[in-house]
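pinning this so it doesn't scroll away 📌
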Amino acid sequence: MPEVLLPVEQPAAMGWMGMLRARLADEGSGEIVALYAVHAATIAAPLAIVPYASRVLGPEHWGVYSIFHSLALYSSMLMEYGFNLSATREVAKMRESRPERARLLADVFSAKLMLGGVLLLLLLAAAHYAPILKGRPDLMTGAALFALGQGASMVWYFQGTARVRSIAGLEIGGRVLAIGLTFFAVHRPADAWLLLAINGFALVLVAALSSAMAVADSGFVRPSLGGAMRTLKDGFSLFIFRGAVSLYTLANSFVLGMLAPPAAVGFFAGAERINKGLIGFLNPLIQAYYSRLSHAATGPKKEFLKLQRRSMYAVVGVGLVLGTFIFLAAPLLVTVVLGPGYAPAVRVLRILALLAPLSAISSTLGVHGLLPLGRDRMFNTVIILAGFLNLALAASLATRWQHEGMSIAVVSTECFVALAFLADMYRTRTQAGNESEAEAV
């Protein structure tokens, strides 16, 4: 059974910042820096746009936009299909084999093409039958373009091959383009759909160019239906995970829109956007270590555990700092980013600040401790339960306390995930200890 280790004692003189610098001062630091550059651009675009858009649209129209934005993010998971985890893990194992990379790339391309068609059909049906989405073909069109661009992202390939630096400039350029086009085109509440369409266009453009770069790196192999079906089958468990985890990470504004007025959605979505942008600084660390741990899992267990311990110091340390900052700076962040009329978002943001340390713990125990070793089933079980728990809590709490209730539901769900992974770690360590004692006897 895999063992998830807790951090060991370190010399007090180093301090946690000294330990973090030491952990990053290795061969993977360049990839982490590149991932941070890409992520900085990813959060800079929405955080640069939000102060402008929230003021132009106002709380109510911002809430309506956020419902469709949440729908776009969640539906993009169908096309992404968990490849950011499953395909990253596979390509990390075949870095040295160009033909194998080419075959995997072709299989993922063909699978995503099929999933993109299904995605469009589902969005079309939703626009026709879902009352909350009816009568807004402009917003639905923007949401569809956004979902396709998000789902077509190629970061998984460059992350798995440790070449994120190759596309960092491209990713950053796409975000800058989106910012410029937004300020140029969005001037009134009726332009809300352009927020989605512009960002969707930038995402599609970046995905197309980075796909060409990936093919140039690996070589071209003719796509096949059999390869696509095999790839879909292999990634199904992580697709279930991505869909479940998205129920309490991406679909919250959409869920709240079915339970509360648009203004409440605007308060929650504004605070959630700020919180996600800041705790998203955990993602480059999580992604970089996940790729390296997936590669290390094919070698000696001692090296894997050593690298896993490093990830715990880095991710949990950053998570604690981020959570503290968000809680203390919430009034200033809401005023600067969202503007007047969004005062209720302050309490929402302070509740959501708890997600930073909780997400750090659950990521180091789950994404870093279970997935690289192939323990997808345990991982998925926890995440699926969490997704349904979030819906149940939202139905109860958001109906009564609207935006604040939704934030409590999200934090409670993440707490459940962290506790479940901790319980699994304790059970695994106890079982390993009992087996060692039995062998000694």
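📌 and the second one:
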Amino acid sequence: MKKSYKLALVALAASTITATGCNSFLTGEGLTNNPNQPTSATADQLFIAMQVAVMGDWESYPMNLLPLWVNQIAGVNRQWQSYAQFKSGTDNLTSDGLWISFYASGGLADIRRGETAAAANGNQKEVGQFRVIEALLMGTAADIFGDVPYDSALTPFPIFDPQAAVYAHVQAVLDSAITDLSGAGGGAGADFYYGNNFGQWTALAHTLKARFYMHTAENADLSYNNAILGQVLTETAAGISTVGGSFSTKHTTTTFETNLFYEFLVGSRAGDVEPGAEHINLAKQLNDNAELASLYSTNNQGQYVGSAAGASAGSNISTFIFPSDYSMGIVTYSENLLLSAEAHYRLGQAGPALTDYTTERAAYGDAGAPIPAGANGLLVGILEEKYVRNFLSPEVYFDYLRTCVPNIPIPANASTSFPFIPPRLPYSYTERTTNPKTPADPVANTAWPKHPTGPAGLVCSGQVGRP
């Protein structure tokens, strides 16, 4: 009753003031401006939002469909069984949230605002930090979708730039970032990833350059461009140089600060996803014992056992054991070394390739460098090691598309519409329904031509039915 009385007095006062001609009552900061809908933000505020958005993108749906499609994890129940069998997750609604996150809040729109604000403050180092993340987002968008808006992305009805042009633009942005990171200013106000260690930011930029060069090194006839492979080696030499220098998500065990994939596993979707048989079996073959022990429990027989896509191994299965504050690698020291190893091998430099491979394994606590039997055994071993070590990374999916390693079979009961591993996500539903310049969804992805066989000379099972 007291509350109603006070509200009535306020209403009476307001009507009285209005009647006398005053029109400024209840206006001003906190009254006419909604504090939950700010109209401006500082560069530091935008940088925080962007960092959190990147973690959300890499640890959640639909990005984790990509390692699922190559059986690093196994979808065995409800929607996730359907995803694993390509019966869903291949429509325009699947990619809607991810597409928006690449371009809207926390994505390119906020990054450009942040770059402008940081430059106006004379903080060129922070501009460089923003630009590294811009390159990560837009290069990954090209990886996933093919042609995407970039040059005109933040205008009404943007055009879709050719995938090759997007990769070239990304390389130019990374070059600018490397220069910016040695410029004036103190960097971001809150850098969750590297604590404003600009040497580490610069190394990250070089590893990203190597990643996207490798993504463009394969020719249409499946040969490799030696000049681009040389650029991969140049960039990896200046890239991430320690395990601790990896660009990884950051979490605590506090509620709302935990790893999102962990939350998915223990929350309302518990039981939908299990350890993937391909990931566990390759880790055992390569004696990646440290990796196995960090991710999985053993079953009642003391064995590591994973599930096939769409089919649970039942009570015999291992379980995920990584903690709630698990730090997922987005761009890692492992990736940097194994990119170098692959480039060396493809250039006919088996000795340096083996050295990189051995160094990578030692850095993560595994001895030796197992080499699979058969043709191109060292190359296959390098690529399999990259698949095993970079858990939940979309890079394992992109590597599969460009190399057919690991050469995984099509899931049992796979969709008749998709009797092959999908080579891309479809364009966003929102983009398709609002931008008349959105092209038709191609089945193919220019960066990833179809492979009849893998490097070991065997039929590439997951790409046989692909157009």
